[in-house]
Write a structure and sequence with these properties.
There is one protein chain. This protein is 27% helix and 9% strand. The protein has three helices and two strands. The radius of gyration is 11 Å and the shape is globular. It has 67 residues and is α+β, with helices and mostly antiparallel strands. Strands 1-2 form a two-stranded antiparallel sheet. It has helices at residues 2-8, 33-36, 44-50; strands at 28-30, 60-62. The termini are close together. Bound molecules: FE2/S2 (inorganic) cluster.
């Protein structure tokens, strides 16, 4: 996942406290439009968890859900 890659490479700001179980939103990240156009929209569970994240925009995704 994008979260795993971020953690493995020391990217700051993504902690993934729930281990990718869609329970924390600490993997919140922003994707640019070019990337978003190439991937599926968030599923219902991801969208619901994003509702509780801080500073959510149209570019927001959860890194643990991006493969
Ligand atoms: Fe917790 Fe993504 S790591 S929701």
């Amino acid at each position: 996942t994008l979260l795993r890659a971020a953690l493995d490479n020391g990217v700051p700001g993504m902690t993934g406290e729930c281990g990718g179980e869609l329970a924390c939103a600490t993997c919140h990240c922003y994707l640019d439009e070019g990337v978003r156009a190439k991937i599926d929209e968030p599923g219902d569970d991801e969208a619901e968890m994003l509702e509780g994240a801080i500073d959510v925009t149209a570019d927001s995704r959860l890194g643990c859900q991006l493969r």
